[in-house]
Design brief:
Function: Produces ATP from ADP in the presence of a proton gradient across the membrane.
Family: Belongs to the ATPase epsilon chain family.
Structural class: alpha+beta
Protein name: ATP synthase epsilon chain
Number of helices: 2
Main location: membrane
Strand content: 35-45%
Pfam families: ATP-synt_DE, ATP-synt_DE_N
CATH superfamily of the largest domain: F0F1 ATP synthase delta/epsilon subunit, N-terminal
CATH architecture of the largest domain: Sandwich
Length: about 140
């Protein structure tokens, strides 16, 4: 069976390295699915979930705040701005981050503050959605 080598890294360090049968990622223009022998691709990622289906059929989930996805025929590299493994997802912390981002957005006085607050809110909302989906799957 053909397979992909997957490497997920962020500024915090190495998040995941392993073999996969399929990878799904939140590209800026929509979710992409990558199978072995995919044509080369380089695209930006938006905040969301990167899913890795292993060769044994297990699905691993990782939250990314954005970054770059590089695809080669047998290699997928995710260079995430920040990443979180599903086992580290905390719904309460994600909800708090979303509330703080909403407060910053409401108090933004300059266009720079507004743009930064909007980006933080998008990331926090995506992180909260990631944590809630995981919570619903495991319970």
């Amino acid at each position: 069976m053909a397979q992909l080598q997957v490497d997920i890294v962020s500024a915090e360090g190495h998040i995941h390295k392993g073999e996969a049968a399929m990878v799904f990622a939140p590209a800026e223009m929509g979710e992409v699915g990558i199978a072995p022998r995919h044509s080369p691709l380089l695209t930006r990622l938006k905040p969301g979930t990167v899913r890795v289906r292993t060769t044994s059929g297990q699905e691993l989930a990782f939250f990314v705040t954005g970054g770059i996805l590089e695809v080669q025929p047998h290699l997928v590299t995710v260079l995430a701005d920040s990443a979180l493994h599903s086992k580290d997802a905390d719904e309460a912390a994600a909800l708090k981050a979303k509330q703080e981002a909403e407060e910053k957005l409401a108090g933004a006085k300059t266009s720079t503050d507004l743009a930064k607050a909007q980006q933080e809110l998008v990331e926090a909302a995506a992180r909260l959605e990631f944590a809630r989906k995981l919570h619903n799957i495991t319970h």
